[in-house]
Amino acid sequence: MPAKTEVPGQLREWPAWQEYGLKDRSAEAEYLDAKRAVIEEYGQEKLTKGWIRVCEQLAKITEEIIQQGNEIIPVCSAETLQKGFSSEEEARIKKTGCVIVRGVIPEEEARKQYNEVHKYIHDNMDTIRAWPEDSPYMYELYDSPMQNAIRSHENHLKIHRLMNELWHDKSGETTPDPLIFYDGVRDRPPKQTFLGLGPHIDAGSLSRWASPDYRIVYDSIFSGNPEKHDAWNLDIRKDAAQDFFKAPPHSAVFRSFQGWTALTPSRAREGCILLYPNIQASIAYMVLRPFFNPPKDEADIMDATKWTFADSGCEFPGTDKEQSQYLSRSSHPHLRLRECLMHVPDIQPGDTVWWHTDLCHAVDTEHEGVNNSSVVFIPAAPSTARNKAYVKRQLADVLAGRQPSDFQGTVNEKLLKGYKGHEGFSEEARKAFGYYL
Ligand SMILES: [Fe+2]
Fold first, then answer.
1. pLDDT tens across 102-129, in order?
2. 263 C-alpha vs ligand 1 centroid, how far in Å?
3. Contacts of 244 (CB under 8 A, 6+ apart)
4. How far is the CA of 208 from the centre of ligand 1 (A)?
5. How far is the CA of 325 from the centre of ligand 1 (A)?
6. CA–CA gap between residue 230 and residue 235 (Å, rounded)
7. Fewest C-beta in 10 Å: which of 175, 370, 394, 395?
8. Sign of the C-alpha dihedral, residues 322, 328, 331, 334?
9. Any bridge partners for residue 308, and if so which?
């Protein structure tokens, strides 16, 4: 019997995920220019003030997370679809950057959809592509009847809108009207290990520092006031160039929340997802980290005042401009990832898991269950100019039998056995899929 963890949701053993650290990027102009630009704009004093403050904040936040375990992650019932989030729920979501909303798709319907997509994959196995190569289970399938049924479901569109409404934009240039971003399907068999998705943050990596339109999102943090960072400001965020460096992991689409809709039950150590349940301080720490070098003495590592301002050299731990932003225990010690990265509570078919676009997350390396663990990736995306442009193109692509440009697949899904397209869509669904853009 495995030892019982004392903190609900905490990892029993830390997987062999990669550690990040010393990798001098001084010879690479994009990294050096990004670092210099931030130092030139904000200066050592403000950056250092921000660093000390965020480490102080994290000392308290990490204790709170460890005390509560995954119970810190807000869990809402399907009643949310009628009532919206209560002010208490909203406050908790804004603090943790994540939420589980149960029963968005009625359980029986989610189970039925799972059986159908399982068959659909089986029937088209020779054509559909999937990864990882040695044991494929992430299917490059975007326009299947199951995905479209769930995305266009009135409950799903309702929750999608509620997630978008958690952001604010005083410019009036955007709306929380949902836009559908086509993503793939996961059907992970038991006993399959997968180390590929350790702690990381999507929506770009080096672009957060290199792009002037993106780094302004973190202006309060670089200015020495991480506690003033507003992680929900769409006014600024809507123009951030997440794909400043073009690479497959960097979507052009701004997702207010990334989302999983479960098709099967899922639980800790059964191919589930892990979240770092804090948004403001964790992202502030991550964006300030490249400006400081750790103390030589390992015993001083948690003392932020012993870290030195990195005015020479150029390290961006866990940052590779062509990958998502990765984090690790040794490179980002104040996050206390070992203790604070939490499995989400058990989820049932039809439940949804949502996490903020800047939230650190990871995928279970193990699946000790006995059944396949399947989710469909459906994020929330508000109506911004960039998102509308992409969704318009996405619709033209899929109607012409091309896979969405973000994924660069080459399969004509219209030719798959059992393909249905967009038949039976409501007006609201047609709007979300981009028919009126
Ligand atoms: Fe991710």
1. 999 999 999 999 999 999 999 999 999 9
2. 19
3. 204, 206, 207, 210, 211, 214, 250
4. 16
5. 9
6. 11
7. 370
8. positive
9. 293
Q: What is the phi-psi region of residue 434: left when phi exceeds 0, alpha when psi lies from -120 to 50, beta otherwise? A: left
Mean pLDDT calculated for residue range 292-305: 96
Q: Which residue has the tokens 């099967």?
A: 264
pLDDT band for position 74 (cuts 50, 70, 90)? very high
Q: How far is the CA of 326 from the centre of ligand 1 (A)?
A: 10
| Strands 98-101, 130-131: pairing kind | unpaired
Q: Residue 104 C-alpha to ligand 1 middle, in angstroms? A: 22
Domains contained in the chain, CATH given: 29-432 (2.60.120.330)
Chain centroid, CA 141 distance in Å:
19
Contact between residue 270 and residue 363 where contact means Cβ atoms under 8 Å apart: no
Question: What is this structure's pTM?
Answer: 0.96
Mean pLDDT throughout 142-170? 98
User: Contact, 375 vs 263, CB < 8 A?
Assistant: yes
The model's pLDDT over 16-26, given as tens digits with 9 standing for 90+, comes to 999 998 788 98
CA 215 to chain centroid = 18
